[in-house]
Amino acid sequence: MQRRFLVAVLLVLTGCGHPSGVMTPVALTAATPKTTRVDMLVATTRQPSGDAATLFTGERSPKPYLTHVEVSLPPNRASGTVQWPKRLPPNPATDFAVTKVQQIEKLPEGRTWLRQHMKDGHALVFVHGFNNKYEDSVFRLAQIVSDSGMDATPILFTWPSRAQLTAYEYDKESTNYSRTALEQTLRTLVDDPAVKDITVLAHSMGTWLTMESLRQMGIRDGHLNPKIRDVILASPDIDIQVFAKQYAEMGVPRPKFTIFVSQDDRALAFSSFITGKVSRLGAINPTVEPYRTKLEEAGITAIDLTKVKSNDSLNHGKFAESPEIVQLIGQRLMTGQPLTDQNVSLGQSITAVVGGTVTTLGTVAATAVAAPATIIEQPLVKHKKPVAADATLQGDLKQQSLTQ
Q1: How confident is the model at residue 394 (pLDDT cuts 50, 70, 90)?
Q2: How far, in Å, are 12, 25, 177, 269, 305 from residue 368 at the CA level?
Q3: Which one-letter DSSP state was computed for residue 318?
Q4: For 23-37, 43-57, 244-258, 333-347, which range has the lowest pLDDT when averaged over its residues?
Q5: Which pLDDT band, with edges at 50, 70 and 90, does 349 fall under?
Q6: What residues form DSSP beta bridges with 354?
Q7: How far is it, in rounded angstroms, from Cα 321 to Cα 330?
Q8: DSSP code per residue over 236-251
Q9: In this predicted model, what pLDDT tens digit does every residue of 82-97 receive, in sequence order?
Q10: pTM of this prediction?
Q11: Do residues 149 and 143 lie in contact, with contact meaning Cβ atoms separated by under 8 Å?
């Protein structure tokens, strides 16, 4: 049974693909229809490829690199989608296309870029997930920025993923390898007077890297800088109890946390399978007590996307592929607006827990109630009685000393 499950998920995962080598810039001509352009600053711990078509590989580099990338998005495209070219070079009239690549050699050049591209002091840092090439994360961030309508300067942090299904453990170790580089990226933004606030949006395995870097910053300084205002974790691929420790050890005050969960996430089911059937944060069932109560006490907002439909066969990228959700990120969560007023209506069966209150964000009542981020161990066997929250979380929300 387990073998059949693994094979089925692998077949789904391997069914996705697109042309490689799209990073060579193409020129926009007078005949090109009006396109949307997204400028981003890309920080990476990947090894340079020496090839303009790919720029960086999935191998690890001890030296971080900065690059300015401009992406052109075609007109009349469907929200939540990335129009990969069917052939190269891309056609900007129909495809996502890179139109500018500029290597930034020194940090002052990066600060100059920030000042020139800063939008009212708001910065968005996006950290991608497992099985991503450099170009995958570039195009995904461009899509999110365009579809969300966010008023923020996009910064991509891309870590060394080999983009191979058999390289799950390599990718996980690459996130650990990149913790300090992401911390340095966030500190650079914090120290820049042009930056007023920072939102970190992380997906899948990138949420592990994000939590580790934030925890590391909190341990160094005692707490996080208040400029890091919002942290959004989409489909977090994190062991639930490990998340509890990461959350506690970053100190107080903490940023505002929002977590997108979905119980039908097949990629997280695969992750749970290969990591010893350990429950993943992004695939929890938040209706089970005493989980909900304990999670509300943590002050974390969770939005349940189980009822949301998308074209993603794995149900792993709903946060970006659902037009309503990606707009919620750009127009509500990043700007600090409440999710409880009458102006939020997503038209789908979506609920959230905000400040301990169950809120319907859509026009159809959901059958399942979302709860804040799961920081409690969920039972792994259906017939097994849930362990009491007090037993699993005794002291987990507070930093603990080695000795009394």
Answers
A1: very low
A2: 26, 46, 38, 19, 10
A3: H
A4: 333-347
A5: low
A6: 357
A7: 13
A8: ---BHHHHHHHHHHT-
A9: 999 999 999 999 999 9
A10: 0.84
A11: no
The region that residue 122 occupies, defined by phi over 0 for left and psi between -120 and 50 for alpha, beta otherwise, is beta
DSSP single-letter state for residue 395 = T
* Residues making up the chain, counted from first to last: 404
Please tell me which residue, 215 or 9, carries the higher pLDDT value: 215
pLDDT of residue 241: 85
Nearest to 203 by CA among 308, 137, 147, 129: 129
- Do 12 and 266 contact (CB within 8 A), yes or no? yes
Rounded (10°) CA dihedral 108, 69, 203, 216: -10
For residue 327, the model assigns a pLDDT of: 82
Name, in order, each residue with C-beta under 8 angstroms of 106's C-beta and a sequence gap of 6 or more. none
Structure tokens given for 373: 């981020």
d(CA 272, CA 278): 5
What is the number of other CB atoms lying within 10 angstroms of the CB of residue 289? 12
Q: Hey, how many other C-beta atoms are within 10 angstroms of the C-beta on 8?
A: 12
